[in-house]
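Note to self: the last two entries modelled the partners one at a time, which told us nothing about the interface. This time every component goes in together.
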Amino acid sequence: MCLTIRRTCVCGREEAQFMHRDNILPKSILVNLYCPSCRSQASWDGDCMTEDNGWVLEFDIEGARFLMWHKGLLDEVTPDFIFDQGYCSWNGMTPHDLEERAILHAELAPLLNQDRLAYINALKTTMLERVHDLKAAGWRKAQNI
Ligand SMILES: [Zn+2]
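The predicted structure of the combined assembly is written out below.
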């Protein structure tokens, strides 16, 4: 089960939702989260940081390696690996994906009472457009969809 974990960025302006695949890594594995406004405060270190569309994630990479090896995961553990394989990654495709999807669902909800098929089609179109937009915007998790 993947629980949603909410994290606030270093400047406190933004909150992101995370999921941790198989709950192997604890919340503390993400040492710092920088939003596009506060990423300038991060001194970039590719050994423990990765980046997605302006956001910077700083991991306790030694801790992650220890925990993953302990679980028998013998892959090379890098910040990209942790993020791309979902061991500590956005819950959804972006930091706010779940909230934004919920808003889109709510906007279409009135249609559900009028015409169920139209609702389903509108939802499908809206979600496809959304994935297309996220992909074009450069979000990593949207690239392989
Ligand atoms: Zn920030």
